[in-house]
Amino acid sequence: MNGLSQNQRDQILSAFNNRGKIAAVKLYKDWMKCSLLEAKNAVEAIEHEAKIGEVSQPAPPDSVESDHAMDQVDQAIARGKKLEAVKLYRQRSGKSLAECKAFVESRMDRSRSTSAESTSHPTAVDSQRSGCFSVLLLFASLTGVCCISGWIAIIIRQ
């Protein structure tokens, strides 16, 4: 829930209690400029935190330590070690388990969408494959034309 003030958290809880989950998610999404899934997970974490009465505000770590910790979290995610990533992020941030789980899942979703975008562009190999198919299609067409021409010549001679 990086970047949320206590007042914003209170407003999200108020929106959740008075107008429902959708209103709270929309409010969070507008403030944080994040994906819908991230906003939903964050609002659920805020709600869970409020239910158990566990509001933690850890001191922000220095940026070098923070960068190293986030690199460790990202490496765990890349290896497919979700629990390890949650544990590392929780140690770094001091946030609740639900918040850390929501954060790691949103980070995993973001890395999946980034890798999906990078694989959606054709590579040189894909271009070569489509080139080979085109050559084979051209060859088959020319072969067909030659066969038909040969048959027509045979028919004319008879």
Write the layout of secondary structure elements.
Layout: H1 6-19, H2 21-32, H3 36-52, H4 63-78, H5 82-93, H6 97-119, H7 124-157
Describe the structure concisely for a colleague:
The chain has 158 residues and is an all-alpha fold. Helices cover 81% and strands 0% of the residues.
Model description:
There is one protein chain. Helices cover about 80% and strands about 0% of the residues. The protein has helices spanning about 5-20, 20-30, 35-50, 65-80, 80-95, 95-120, 125-155. It starts with 5 loop residues before the first helix and ends with a helix.
Strand portion = under 5%
Averaging pLDDT over every residue, what do you get?
Answer: 78
Task: Write down how many β-strands occur, each being a DSSP E stretch of 2 or more residues.
Answer: 0
**N to C succession of SSEs:** HHHHHHH
Taking the alpha carbons of the first and last residues, their distance comes to 87 Å
Shape: elongated
Number of helices: 7
Helix/strand class: mainly alpha
Q: What profile does the largest beta sheet have? A: none
Helix content: over 70%
| Rg measurement, Å | 29 Å
As residue ranges, the low-confidence spans are: 54-59
